[in-house]
Amino acid sequence: MSGRFLRLITIDEARRIIDANIQAIGGFEIVPLIEADGRILFEDLHAPVDLPPFNRALMDGYAVRSPDTFGATEEKGIRLKVIGEIRAGDAIEDLEVGRGEAVEVATGARIPEGADSVLMVEFADRVGEDELIVYRHVAPGENIQMRGDDIRRGENLLRRGTGIHAREIGILAALGMDQIKVLRRPRVCVISTGNELEYPGRELREGKIFDANGYMITAALLELGADASFIGVIRDSYDELRGTLESAVSGGLILSSSLVEPLQEGGISSTGSLRIWVSF
Amino acid sequence: MSGRFLRLITIDEARRIIDANIQAIGGFEIVPLIEADGRILFEDLHAPVDLPPFNRALMDGYAVRSPDTFGATEEKGIRLKVIGEIRAGDAIEDLEVGRGEAVEVATGARIPEGADSVLMVEFADRVGEDELIVYRHVAPGENIQMRGDDIRRGENLLRRGTGIHAREIGILAALGMDQIKVLRRPRVCVISTGNELEYPGRELREGKIFDANGYMITAALLELGADASFIGVIRDSYDELRGTLESAVSGGLILSSSLVEPLQEGGISSTGSLRIWVSF
């Protein structure tokens, strides 16, 4: 016990030291979209494609030319010729709806050329293989979602700095992006120091206490999105501590819980590779 | 495309079916404390030990009998005999402070028998090896944290159902608990179905769209604390779908995004082991 006073500094002064010695967290990494939850977007994202990527049926029914249905009523149906079928996911293969014609479509199917609307399946009766009686008219555009209606190609989608969560993952998946650029996470090593500290789960010998800070601070850092590791409890020994700090320092910021007396003795400045060290 | 209508049910009816067919999430598992972040406590927790586990010095200084310091001033010091030193983590080994005696203690050190207070190091001068001049009096209990002051053994600490986060991890670590009983997480398998679906990152062929629900729902479930996996995109094929569901069903709840037509054809009831299946 030396009786020397430690020099206390203000928070502002501490901030200046940190700013001068710690490089800002920078750089990006590319991660699979499915693992991006909780990460921070590195760059503005623009939609690479239209969503939906084609004009799309919103109902099960028949793709038709709407004028062909004008005048149809429950009492007086209009006959159309069914020339094909498109299910969700089908390619169209030169199918084109001409005057007096209809193509059976499923919800999500691509609308064939010529058709401008979808008549719901409930408002038509199928007669044999290729005939249809229509009992209601449809308006142009009815039951069709137009290409780019949800998101237009080139649209500014998400801004740099946005936190990625389930909603953002859904948007990016819908646009076909399976990996994204995110900010690198700060790497943080947590060390507890002190001869009095014992690991939870061990036997507590006389005069010892369990280390709480190591686990708690590591958990808090992980919650904040840091790449944090609890290095462990280090005894109050200059050599042990210096060795640990030097091997951990590749990390960047080192948080050590409790005052580190041995390093005061040995001199923090002697660890040349150590940029900053925060004790509390 | 059959034209048959599907039978819609109310939310209440759906809830009744789920309640009747899904067993409640139950049971516990024991996890290491360091991995417990985000889990839910399975049982009420009582403190297994006092915290701190012994009377503890709050300052660097000297453990003394307070009456020995009464009358000490800056002008007129009182001499005490230093009979030993206790650092943080040291066992005491029969050290007892008698009248006119003092023991050097570090912050966090166990207070020896006989002493009832700690005189801050700033208010004393060490004279040689074993003598001390005291320039201030201390009151009984001054600068000592009594055993159990933070948490008393047997105290109801955390209730069943509490979410475990950094703060709770710190409390449990301080009490020496390195593993805890938590609720089992619901296992959820996510399947997307439909011939129109393509995985993000693949080439989008005509008529196809990227699957967004699979990634998004899996991410949302993980955020909610479920043990969720995205099984993948399954084609609209009864055999393929039934095989996937049967291998996934050991999980419990299966969420499938989009309507599953092939199973309507094959009959959901034929998958004997399948308890419940939610389509949306």
Automatic annotation (TrEMBL), chains A, B:
SUPFAM superfamilies on file? MoeA N-terminal region -like (SSF63882), Molybdenum cofactor biosynthesis proteins (SSF53218)
Show where the MoeA N-terminal and linker domain sits: 9-176
Task: Please indicate which superkingdom the organism of origin belongs to.
Answer: Archaea
Q: Which GO terms describe its cellular component?
A: cytoplasm
Q: Which residues form a coiled coil?
A: none
CDD domains in the record, alphabetically?
Answer: MoeA
Q: Which Pfam families match?
A: MoCF_biosynth (PF00994), MoeA_N (PF03453)
> Its annotated pathway?
Cofactor biosynthesis; molybdopterin biosynthesis
What GO molecular functions are on record for this protein?
molybdopterin molybdotransferase activity
Alphabetically list the UniProt keywords. Molybdenum cofactor biosynthesis
List each copy of the MoaB/Mog domain by range: 190-255
Q: Give the matching InterPro entries.
A: MoaB/Mog-like_dom_sf, MoaB/Mog_dom, MoeA-like, MoeA_linker/N, MoeA_linker/N_sf
The UniProt record lists the keyword ATP-binding: no
Q: Which GO terms describe its biological process?
A: Mo-molybdopterin cofactor biosynthetic process
The protein's name: Molybdopterin biosynthesis protein
**Organism field:** Candidatus Syntropharchaeum butanivorans
